[in-house]
Amino acid sequence: MLRTLEPELMLAPDQAQAYAEADFSETDDRFVQRFGQLFGRDFVGEIVDLGCGPGNIALRMARAFPDCSVTGVEGSAAMLDLARKRLAAMPETAFRMRFVEATLPTAVLPMHSADAVVSNSLLHHLHDPSVLWLTLRQVAVRRAPVLVVDLRRPETETRARQLVDACAANEPEVLRRDFYNSLLAAFEVDEVEKQLERAGLYGLQVQAVGDRHLEVFGRMPG
Ligand SMILES: C[S@@+](CC[C@H](N)C(=O)[O-])C[C@H]1O[C@@H](n2cnc3c(N)ncnc32)[C@H](O)[C@@H]1O
Questions:
Q1: Using one digit for the tens of pLDDT, what is the confidence trace for 5-38?
Q2: 73 CA distance to ligand 1 centroid (A)?
Q3: Cβ of 124 below 6 Å from ligand 1
Q4: Half-sphere exposure in the Cβ direction for 122 (13 Å, CA)
Q5: What integer pLDDT is reported at residue 106 of this predicted model?
Q6: Distance of CA 74 from the midpoint of ligand 1 (Å)
Q7: Would you list the domain boundaries of the chain?
Q8: Which ligand 1 atom sits closest to the C-alpha of 126?
Q9: Ligand 1 pocket test target in 108, 124, 125, 128 with most atoms within 8 Å of CB
């Protein structure tokens, strides 16, 4: 099945709200655990979360890595509004976090300022995926840890519908529609391998995870 693009930014307030209310805790917790497993549970530094949405991963990273500061970067004002409301309810963590409104590619982010870069479920939104890999080159310091997790495109539309029914049976229609469109917009493992090769990111590897995800992990070039 060929890739079908979906809109990059999740701009609609009802869309952002449905996303924020959905329970992604299993995959979100796994993301944070995976970062600790790969790069150490005592990681220290500035972590940048690209396409942070309502802050699911950014807020978890800040809690799990208490000696880190976390910057979430997001192009949708509706998503950022939700992220900032959540942050306001976490005063013990708020001083180590900030959310920046920026649509990638952007010149707003300072060069080589991130000690680690993470991103969850952004890649499939990007019409030109090289934007993510070039942004990593822009913001990350040398040898910075990277963890990118995303959906993996199924082989057929029928399989995509089965995944929506299996994983989001009782979710609102707006979320089910977004999930289906996201599966069709996602990449296959070998496509991401080619993207990394073109970007010269030889320290990063990609692998399939479970029935619908892929992960890219490793370190930026030295
Ligand atoms: C599926 S959500 C994932 C949100 C978050 N990372 C999480 O794991 O919950 C994808 C997010 O990426 C944002 N996004 C898409 N394209 C973007 C771009 N070019 N620049 C910045 N944000 C973008 C969307 O607005 C949306 O909030």
A1: 999 999 999 999 999 999 999 999 999 999 999 9
A2: 8
A3: no
A4: 32
A5: 96
A6: 6
A7: 13-219
A8: 16
A9: 125
Tell whether ligand 1 has an atom less than 6 A from the beta carbon of residue 195: no
9 lines ligand 1 (CB under 6 A): yes
| pLDDT for residue 27 | 96
What's the mean pLDDT when you consider all of the chain? 97
For residue 59, list its beta bridge partners: none
Give the Å distance between the CA of 160 and the centre of ligand 1. Answer: 20
Distance CA 49, CA 140 (A): 11
Q: What is the pTM of this model?
A: 0.98
How much is the CA Rg of the chain, to the nearest whole Å?
16
Task: Give per-residue pLDDT as tens, 163-211.
Answer: 999 999 999 999 999 999 999 999 999 999 999 999 999 999 999 999 9
Q: What is the CATH class of 13-219?
A: alpha beta
